Amino acid sequence: MELSGRGIARSVVKRANSFGATPISSRGVLNRAVGRLGGADGSGALRKAVGGKVVLVTGASSGIGRSAAVRLAAAGAKVLLVARSEDQLNEVVNEVAASGGVAVAYRCDLSDLEQVDVLVTKVLDAHGHVDILVNNAGMSIRRKVRHSQDRFQDFERPMQLNYFAAVRLTMGLLPTMVERESGQVINISSWAALVRPARFSGYSASKAALEAWSDCVQGEVIDDGIVFTNVHMPLVRTPMITPTKLYNRMPALSMDQAATVVCDAAVSRSRRVTPLVAAWASFAESVSPALGDVIRKNAI
Q: Got the DSSP string for the chain?
């Protein structure tokens, strides 16, 4: 039986709100993260989880990556910062050093897979291994398919950075994790990978591809002490969303709050971190594709 959709979609959102979630920004995810970390200053469980470990964060020059890297370094991790901007990376290194932490900058254009291979070689030669890889670097495009008829790069570019670069980097670092029987890969995915909202086809597909790949590989390394964690991040106030003026009126996590969610993933080692409303939208999709279509149409 086909469901009418719009009224049910509103009911799902209303119910999710009553449990501390909004269509975009799940306070429940944030509150659980703060509770597990044992404080907002990077102490407690986070220090126990990452202290003395080597953590590589991509997209570390700004946004979520920068905030998360600073928090991880404050908790005692040796943080390897990866991004294209050398100047911005050096700023983060200085910020970490001023707080008594340790950070090393590696300039790399991750969309160039040859540079990714060089990065892997440099990191392993210098540090021997990486305990936690945070695949955070990414890009998003919000555009209707009909406006991309002559812009196939709208699909190639997000797939290159969000999927291929992350897979190449993970594959380069995974063998040492397997050898050490210890490691974690944290993919900063998006609620969009579950909801698949209209106008985000290139972005959603690239994030969903990385999740599918990670789940398959998890089955291969499940007995090797390695965990793949997919974080379905809600909307976050980062430079990436600035061009979309619509987002100015929508609820979102701050970069520091998003960093808290990332740090909590290192503590919990969960396989999934998902806002409640995104999980419900995904369930609605499994019950009725028609209902899922209504949610997609009205999600953004």
A: -----HHHHHHHHHHHHHTTB-SS-BHHHHHHHHHHHTSTTS-THHHHHHTT-EEEEESTTSHHHHHHHHHHHHTT-EEEEEES-HHHHHHHHHHHHHTT-EEEEEE--TTSHHHHHHHHHHHHHHHS--SEEEE---------GGGGTT-THHHHHHIIIIIIIHHHHHHHHHHHHHHHT-EEEEEEEETHHHH--TT-HHHHHHHHHHHHHHHHHHHHHTTTTEEEEEEEE--B-SGGGTT-GGGGGS--B-HHHHHHHHHHHHHH--SEE--HHHHHHHHHHHH-HHHHHHHHHHH-
163 is catalytic: no
| Res 190: pLDDT | 76
Superfamily holding 22-274 = NAD(P)-binding Rossmann-like Domain (3.40.50.720)
Domain boundaries of the chain, sorted by first residue: 22-274
- The model's pLDDT over 102-114, given as tens digits with 9 standing for 90+, comes to 999 999 999 999 9
Catalytic choice (106, 163, 203, 247)? 203
Structure tokens at 264: 């909590």
Q: Are the CB atoms for 169 and 121 separated by under 8 Å?
A: no
Reported as a single tens digit per residue, the pLDDT across 31-90 is 555 555 655 444 689 999 999 999 999 999 999 999 999 999 999 999 999 999 999 999
